[in-house]
Write a structure and sequence with these properties.
It contains 18 helices and 27 strands. With 572 residues, the protein is an alpha/beta fold. The strands form six sheets. Strands 2-1-11-10-12-13-14-15-16 form a nine-stranded mixed sheet, with helices on both faces. A five-stranded parallel sheet has the order 4-3-5-6-7, sandwiched between helices. A hairpin with a 4-residue loop joins strand 1 and strand 2. The chain binds 5'-O-[(S)-ethoxy(hydroxy)phosphoryl]adenosine. 5'-O-[(S)-ethoxy(hydroxy)phosphoryl]adenosine binds next to helix 10, strand 14, strand 21 and strand 22.
Length: 572
């Protein structure tokens, strides 16, 4: 497929020359950016907050927070004191010590961020949970991790089976009407009284920082453990990929229950001393554009589903807001359809920069940088200091344009260090040759750009042709009637598999056989006859993870009448 590359817009970017950086960069250089390179005392929360509170950034706004009820801002000096207070509450009333698992289960609020930072200052391992988790999902995670402390709200408490979790010793409640007993503690009452001073717990770079549960294709969700050393990656990618500079106002739309909401919603931006916008509440196109306008957001990191929803809301809304502050837009989490990139050029006059990484990788690995050409549909090129390749099932590197396993050479700073309680699972990620194998299939073109094809297990083989479901889905959403599409291979006695598409229509379109035929022809014409779905089924909504990925596994289960498996990561 030939695509038109989008040229670089001239600018003063942190990463001016990608090729040169790729040749010469060494992670050792990044260590100089942290105070521990001189003091020997390591703690990510200290580097992200306290250190800036002693510099010219002291009175710089670190956090702009808003939701339908609150509208607040905090400087780095404020953040230092407030996270110290949270740490003191957790320490004095929850006995939190280095290595303890402290889980946070609540909607976004400033206190959520104070608590995460406070727990890290104590050397604890933080486990953030999406507020939408129901009881089973909460139990699985608290049980598997042996969580000792939980911070939640009175409303969410009913989804926490405290009596069935013997290792859970203290539950802090943030909200009104807290009834205290041996286990339950009123967080805010203690917080108000707590000292603003704290001696931070110094840790080893390899000590645990955060535990994100994520689902694979099989089994229960697994606990991916990251360590303080990941800050090297958080910091440098924030510099070179997000391109954060001193005057920027940055907005990452992700919830901290997802790795993007921690690595790039908390750690990266604050390590770089940036002003960080955090918005609670539900998604609404008007609110999103208004956020950009009100704060003068300059750098914006979101996800394809959100962009597609904005696209679906129409271009007229965009015109009602002044979005002139925006200078750099990025995306992560699922394939970024070329159609969305073209829409971005049309309405924002900016390129949307795709980035590829995973919960397991802790930070960005393959990206589009402001100073390189963007090829719409490509995830970009490996970050300097990162070796990426396409390998076969034995770990042999494949030449350009051959589809295979997307693999990364072990040794980047933010690589996961453990699957909690499951060393076998951890080992299963690696192949001979020190390759970390992502489970994604992709190819690399002659110019070193990587192109996502699908999860390894999702690739469809129909009449001997390999078809990546993403390619078909991308084409489908280009049709004006299609809001979202998920494509699977359905077993077929003659063709091996046939392509089946599940489609949610945009508002104002009616289901009909004519429309089905029209959509099929559209793909046939736009992509290839063999790529056109033989079957189309319309649904009001498609099953998606909270991070916006269509859950093809669930579509497959619907289709084949199989159990859907673990649904804890599925959005409402
Ligand atoms: C997918 C954490 C295409 C991919 C950030 C990966 C992507 C999985 C992209 C990780 C991208 C992520 N293009 N696919 N730019 N980024 N993915 O851990 O399949 O929730 O393996 O993401 O998302 O999902 P996770």
């Amino acid at each position: 497929m030939k695509v038109e590359a989008l040229p670089v817009t001239k600018g003063d970017y942190n990463l001016a020359d990608y090729d040169q950086a790729y040749e010469s960069f060494d992670w050792k250089e990044v260590e100089k950016e942290f105070s521990w390179s001189e003091t020997g005392r390591v703690n990510l929360a200290h580097e992200a907050i306290d250190r800036h509170a002693e510099t010219h950034r002291k009175n710089k706004v670190a956090l702009y927070y808003r939701d339908p009820e609150r509208n607040e801002k905090y400087t780095f000096a404020d953040m230092k004191k407030l996270s110290n207070q949270a740490a003191n509450v957790l320490k004095n009333f929850g006995d939190v010590e280095k290595g303890d698992r402290v889980f946070i289960f609540m909607p976004r609020s400033p206190e959520l961020y104070f608590s995460i930072l406070g727990a890290i200052k104590l050397g604890a391992i933080v486990g953030p949970l999406f507020e939408a988790f129901m009881e089973g999902a909460v139990r699985d995670r608290l049980e598997d991790s042996g969580a000792k402390v939980l911070v939640t709200t009175p409303e969410l408490l009913e989804r926490v089976p405290v009596d069935e979790l013997p290792e859970l010793k203290h539950v802090f409640l943030i909200g009104d009407g807290v009834k205290e007993d041996d286990v339950h503690i009123d967080f805010m009452a203690k917080f108000k009284e707590a000292s603003k001073k704290l001696s931070v717990e110094w840790v080893d770079r390899e000590d645990g920082l955060i535990l994100h549960y994520t689902s694979g294709s099989t089994g229960k969700p697994k606990g991916v453990l990251h360590v303080h050393n990941a800050m090297l990656q958080h910091y440098q990618t924030t510099k070179w990929v997000l391109d954060l500079q001193e005057e920027d106002v940055y907005w990452c739309t992700a919830d901290p229950g997802w790795v993007t909401g921690t690595s790039y919603g908390i750690f990266g931006p604050w390590l770089a001393g940036a002003s960080n916008v955090i918005v609670g509440g539900r998604f609404k196109p008007e609110h999103w554009y208004k956020t950009i306008e009100d704060y003068g957001v300059t750098v914006w990191y979101s996800a394809p589903t959100a962009f597609r929803m904005l696209m679906g809301a129409g271009d007229e809304i965009v015109k009602q807001f002044d979005l002139g502050s925006l200078r750099h837009i990025l995306s992560v989490g699922e394939p970024l359809n070329p159609e969305v990139v073209r829409w971005g050029m049309k309405v924002f006059n900016l390129r949307i920069h795709d980035t590829w990484w995973m919960t397991e990788t802790g930070g960005q690995l393959i990206c589009n940088y402001p100073s390189i050409e963007v090829k719409p549909g490509s995830m970009g090129k490996p970050f300097p200091g990162v070796k990426a390749a396409i390998v076969d099932d034995q770990g042999n590197e494949l030449p350009p344009n051959r589809m295979g396993n997307l693999a990364i050479k072990k040794g980047w700073p933010s690589m996961m260090r453990q699957i909690w309680n499951n060393p076998q699972k951890y080992d299963s990620y690696f192949m001979p040759g020190d390759w970390y194998v992502s489970g994604d299939s992709a190819y690399m073109d002659e110019e070193g750009y990587f192109w996502f094809q699908g999860r390894v297990d999702d690739v469809i083989m129909t009449s001997g042709e390999r078809v990546g479901p993403f390619e078909v889905e991308s084409k489908l959403v280009e049709h004006p009637a299609v809001a979202e599409a998920g494509v699977i291979g359905k077993p077929d006695p003659v063709r091996g598999e046939i392509i089946k598409a599940f489609i949610a229509l945009r508002d104002g379109y009616e289901i009909s056989d004519e429309l089905k035929e029209e959509i099929r022809t559209f793909v046939k014409k736009g992509l290839a006859a063999h790529a056109a779905p033989r079957e189309i089924e319309f649904r009001d909504k498609l099953p998606k993870t909270r991070s916006g990925k269509i859950m093809r596994r669930v579509l497959k289960a619907w289709e084949l009448d199989l159990p859907t498996g673990d649904l804890s990561t599925m959005e409402d």
